[in-house]
Amino acid sequence: MKSVIPSQLSFLLLLSLSLMTFSSVAQVTPPDSTDTMQVEEDYSMYDNVEFSAEGAKRFCSPKIEGLSPAKLISFGYDYQFGYDISADTLNTIQSPSTFNLNPQDAQILRSHGMRIGFNIPVISQTNLVWQLGANYWEQRYDFKDPSNLQNPLLKTLSEHGLRTLGLSTTLFKPLNDKSFILFQGSADYSGNYSIKSMMPLAYMKYSAALIYGKRPTELKQWGVGLARTYRVGEINYIPVVLFNWTDQANKWGTEILFPARAHVRRTINSRNMLFAGYELEGQSYRLWNTSSTDGFDMQDDELEIRRGEIRLRLIYEFAVKDFVWMSVQAGYRINYRFDVDRLIGGEENYRAFGLIEDTPPYVMLNRLTNPLYINISINLVSP
Q: If you ran DSSP here, which 8-state letter would residue 94 be given?
């Protein structure tokens, strides 16, 4: 078992204090995942800062009319119904270790976990808006007949699951009354670690996005930019397109940050909203809680799960009381990638969607069937 080094203890203490601070501040005043998360922003989280003092320079607002309310604090639970997994052997691993296991098929009865997020505005001025966020996501795997699992990947998923602890920051800089620049950065600590066996901070994954946009009217906002992201499991550099729009009657609209997510919004009234669309979700998870007895030899092999999925979904968000809202979503999870990669000399393999030649192959190619899923959260939203 690996021990927590002093620097990690300091990090955990700092993060715990930060989370308590976020909670206490939000009581009187994440984006979601992502959400952790990478390349995703909810532009309604800020106050309307469209105009400066009379006679001074005018600046555009970070939001448009009709957008869904921003989630300052979120407590949720994610549940995927049963599906099958076929785990490959480590037959392409570049290591002197010997692996004689056969590919194994297994049935996952359910995968599930908590999702907690905190997002607060730190600076909200006419010429600058700055937000900080933190989140914790987990995914636990309940197998049928876990005692019969022989494949090392299936064994570690059953015993430890996967989790992400993340910090994020967002800067909205209006240039004038029509144009703006948006930056978002995040650091995610993802793997199969536990409190008793934490990973080194060197395994953090960093994502960022920079967007130049326009807000021509109070009903439309668009932008283009570039993102470094792990949303489909492995690192990629991709263009992004922002398009938020509301019709004149404030009944229909869009909330899009392509390719990360895209939704059509139907506003029943100011306290009830329906959404239909999709989101890309994923991360790269370090295989840390393993041993040579499981079939993984971490002294020789630096392995990571490249997990990416597409979630087709319907969402209903409604006010429970005042600024307390509930979000209920249901949909179909489509597996995009759940393969295991080996770092060469500690460096990630950059494949650019398979366009880079001479890139080492994945060491495990795994297959998952696609289940239905539900996600329920209770949220404190901005006024």
A: -
Q: Is the pLDDT of residue 49 over 70?
A: no
**Element at 129 (helix H, strand E):** strand 128-143
Residues 154-178 have pLDDT tens digits of 999 999 999 999 999 999 999 999 9
How do residues 206-255 score in pLDDT, each as one tens digit?
999 999 999 999 999 999 999 999 998 999 999 999 999 999 999 999 99
Q: For residue 160, which amino acid is it?
A: H
Is the distance from CB of 44 to CB of 70 less than 8 angstroms? yes
Tokens of 89: 């052997």
Using left for φ > 0, alpha for ψ between -120 and 50, and beta otherwise, residue 358 falls in left
176 exposure class (CB count in 10 Å sphere: 0-12, 13-18, 19+): exposed
Query: What HEC string does 353-372 produce?
Result: CCCCCCCCCCCECCEECCCE
Q: Give the N- to C-terminal CA distance of the chain in Å, as an integer.
A: 47
Using DSSP bridges, classify how beta strands 128-143 and 252-258 pair: parallel, antiparallel or unpaired. unpaired
Write out the E strands in 54-103: 71-80, 83-87
Distance CA 347, CA 67 (A): 40
